[in-house]
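Appendix B, Record 12. Input sequence as logged:
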Amino acid sequence: MSAAATAKGERERIESRLRWYPILKRRIESTRAKIRKRRAELCDEGYSLQAMSFNGIPTQTNRITQREQDYVAHKLEPDEELGSLRMELRRLEAERDEIRAGLGALSEQQQEFVRLRYFKQLYYKQVAVQISVSETTVYELRNSVLDTLLQAGL
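Logged structural output:
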């Protein structure tokens, strides 16, 4: 595969991730809602993660850390569905954070372009009107956004 084809493929991958970002945010909220619902169901069944006793667990201090609580809760997790939802939430949040970090490398004008073109899914001509530039400038802006995100490792 040529370098030009590879670069084109990388740019398409970045554009795909940018289009995915608003959906990703909705998926995170949906997964959080599913976790809350499943926790409520478990509480109705007489089980509560918050009700677990951590007394008697040896720690370096007499206080158990959140990390230790998470580890114990994971090991004692009686519900596979809840565990799977938590893993999915961590994966989605990691992807969201990676995209956010890439967006942080963009200028304000580039961020506005991304918001209008990829998040709001406006046509190039509509983006040009919104940010008061020519359509040619919008295409140049697209290229600079993709170059910047490529360099940022997105």
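The mean pLDDT is 82.
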